[in-house]
Specification:
This protein has four helices and nine strands. It is α+β, with helices and mostly antiparallel strands. The chain has a single domain, classed as Nucleoside Triphosphate Pyrophosphohydrolase (Alpha-Beta Complex), CATH 3.90.79. The longest helix has 15 residues.
Length: 174
């Protein structure tokens, strides 16, 4: 396994928003993740293949939050001056090399953990082309939904991914 010396830029400025997504200020990445919990927008993209399998990325060990866990295919902060769809397209290209896809907005909701509070814009798509994970991830793979379901609450996935998986994909099976 390659040793990563990369790390998140704690000085990166992120937008702060209200629960309707309206810009109310800015703060550093470090301030957004230090437990003070200013609300900041992020995007998530759940990528399925034609067989109905869900692509998950492995978070690199150098990540500040949830290192080494399996997570949503694409996830990232909305930058200052971007809207959610712009951020989604940028993050999908940066993390997986995806440029041509049709995102479907599933929901926008507030997610709060011990260290941060996010306004999450959650999308899904079906991908028929190749996926090329970048150095922003530690690789990834398509998973059968039954395999994901069997490993919930085992420490394999990020808590945020497990929340979304239950909310959007387990209910489809009911």
């Amino acid at each position: 396994m390659m040793i990563q010396t990369k790390k998140d830029d704690d000085t990166e400025m992120l937008p702060l928003v209200d629960e309707n997504g309206l810009l109310i200020g800015a703060a550093t990445r470090k301030e957004c993740h230090d437990g003070s919990k200013p609300l900041h927008p992020v995007v998530h993209l759940h990528v399925f293949n034609e067989a109905g399998e869900l692509y998950l990325q492995k978070r690199p060990e150098w990540k500040t939050i949830q290192p080494g866990k399996w997570d949503t295919a694409v996830g990232g902060h909305v930058d200052l001056g971007e809207n959610a769809e712009m951020a989604l397209k940028r993050e999908a290209a940066e993390e997986l090399g995806l440029k041509e896809f049709e995102p479907e907005l599933l929901e926008t909701y507030v997610y709060e953990s011990d260290v941060e509070k996010e306004l999450v814009f959650t999308y899904r798509c079906t991908c028929t082309g190749p996926i090329a994970p970048s150095g922003e991830t530690d690789g990834g793979a398509f998973w059968k939904l039954e395999h994901i379901t069997a490993q919930l609450e085992q420490g394999v996935f990020t808590p945020n991914f497990e929340t979304e998986y239950r909310r959007f994909f387990l209910k489809e099976k009911a």
